Every structure is written in C-alpha cells, then in structure tokens.
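cron nightly-structures :: item 1 of 1
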Amino acid sequence: MFKQLWVDFRQSSFGEKIRSLIPDSLVNLFFHFPLVVIAVIYFRYPAGHLKVIGVTGTDGKTTTATLIHHLFTRGGKKTALITTVSAKIGDEEVPTGFHVTSPHPWKLQSLLRKIVDRGYEFVVLEATSHGLAQHRLWGGNFFLGVITNVTHEHLDYHQTYENYLAAKAKLFKGVRIAILNRDDKSFGYLKTKIQKYRKTRIITYGVKKGADFTHKTFKFKTKLQGEFNQSNCLAAIATVSVLGLSEEKIKQGIQSFPGIEGRLETIDEGQDFQVYVDFAHTPNALEQMLKTLRTQLSVGKRLIVVFGCAGLRDKKKRPKMGAIAARLAGMTILTAEDPRTEEVNEIIDQIAVGCQKNGSIEGKTFYKVPDRTEAIRFAIEKAEKDEIVAICGKGHEKSMCFGKIEYPWSDQREAKRALKERIVAENK
C-alpha cells in the first residue's frame, strides 16, 4: 500500500516538481540507501553466503551474464541468475518487472535469500549504473566484477560520461577479481582506479588488443553473430576460467549457447528475406548491430531498420542514433518506443535531425511512422528478396509505455503478424 501511494505521488505533477528540486545524491543517500540497509538486515545478508558475480556495462550485460550462467550451469556448478529480464533459480523463472534497471532492494535481497536457502554456490547479477549509483546493490558482496563497455547512455540521469563511468566503477570496489575489456575506452580509467584496491586481481579480455583472453589465447566457436558478441563471449570465458571451469567445458558451453530472446533474434515465417528483433537502444548497440547485419547483405540489397527512442530518457542520443541509422541502413523507419509522457512525433523529429545531417531524405531513405505496429508492417511490406529488416529497441520487453500506462506489446508478435499478412496477400 505504501509503495503504491509513493508511486502515485511521484507520478503526480506536484510530486514530479518536488522531486526535480531534490538533488539525486540526497535521494540516493537518504532514501535509497536506508531502504537497502533495512532489506539486507531483514533478509540476513544473503550475499555473504554466496560468490556473487557482478556484470555491468552499457551494452551486452544481459548476454554476458546469461552466458556466464549457462557455462557454469552446464559445467556442473550450482548457479543462479538475476538480470534486467528475469531471475532464474533452477527451473524457476521470476520476472523482475517492466523496464527495470536493477531490482528494487527488497526484491533483490528476497531473491538472494531464496538462492541461499536452495543451496546455490554462485549467483550472476546484472549491475546497472542506476542500481550502483542509488546504492540498490549495496550488500551485494561482489566476489568478481565484469565490465563489457561504457558508451553514451543514461546521461539524462548521470549528466556526464565521467559521472556515468564513475557509477560503473563502483562495482569493483572490494571485489577479488576484476574482468576488464582491453578494447574499451573505459579501460585506462578503470585499471588505474582498481589498482588502488591492492587485493583486487585484474584480468583482461579483448578482440582487437592484446589481453589475457583473446581469440589467440582461447579459441572458441559460437552461434552468436557480430564482433560485439565475440567480446561478450570472451568476457564470459575469462570469468568462468579464473573461477575454475575447465577449457573443455567452456568450449562446449559456448558452442551450445543459443542466445537470448530479443538479441538478434530471428523471426522466420518462411519469407524470402531476413527479419531480426534486437534490443539495441543505445548509439553503440545500434551501430554494432547494423554493422553486423550489413556483412550478410548481397550487393544491391538493403538493410531496413525500425526504431525509436524512449521518452523521458537521454535526449542527446536521439540525433546520434538517427545519424548512425542513416549511415548504415538503406532505409530507416522512425517510430514509437515507450514515449511515456513525451509527444512521440517530437521524439521522432529529434531522431530525424540526425538522419538529415547524414544526408538521408525523408520519404525516400527515411520515414516517420509513429504507430509501431504500422512501422513494422511498413518495413516488412517494403522488404525485397534477400534484404534484411531489423526491428530495434524493445527486444525482450513485453510492454510499451504511453503516458503513465504500460500496454502489452511484443515486437516478435507484431513482426510475425505482418509477415503472415504479407504471405497471405502474395498467395492470393
């Protein structure tokens, strides 16, 4: 009851105005921190009985965390998983909510207590910058920390890249082992900061630069596409290797990993072109995903991308993503993606600025289709044989927020529906 009253107050215009006047640092210290302390005490500090593996970064967190869980589970180690998608404790899967970053402290500590009571040794926990900055992961007792990358995201909350990076770095305070991406621009800062923690061992991985774990030092095969997923695999390999999993078991696990829902997920209804659903919702994720798909195109064929940007979130990334799409896709369709209380057409116009700066022409190489159902249908209608349609931004999510209400949604469902409609029309 109290929680709902608080939510109602926060969502009221008066509550939003009051909240805007209070610095985040004070809210974190005097609201979030006391809540997590109470939760840790109530659930009897469950993380103290576990080896907690924290995974953070802008992109690739969920894939890397899920892959570590997959490798350990197949390797015979009793391991649970908590990500922004869900929590997995054996055969039980527990939803963690809509559009969550890290779970609420009470939810998180409750899950950790359940994991301890069921006799687990390891838990892999996805750690977001919001969760770290707001102390929601305090009491996590991280044994090992992994970082994928740190690129442009969440600057509406953190204000600067430096603040964002500092929030990510909090994961590594007190860990025994730090797994760092040698290729990422965050590497120098994190290495220098972590070296001050004398008891922390630094292990590196990388696709491009010399590191402890590379393709040369650890050869593997994976079903996952893209260089970014090669990097995610190396992060997971480094993690489970230093924690004792054999090379043979790791290679078998990497090769058997099927991927996860909403990450370059193939939608196939028998059409003669490819359709993918992907969670890419940051400039870096969109760029890496589009580059990966471009390598599959035949000469003269187009990559068609459908995406939007979330309302009440980082506005600076909107034109950046428009420019990336215009540069890498043959056709861009701008649409809704959780507009919340913002006007969807205004969001689309801000993305379109980036398209136009990169030479894209409205009505020819990019289109504005605010209704996401219609946007997906439009993309699938326009696709020709051997072309690729990428539907980005929602991925695994099962709802879309308009105003302050979550409505049921699935990119996969809408894509399948549009494909079936096209196939029926073509067979008439």
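cron nightly-structures :: done
The chain has 16 helices and 16 strands.
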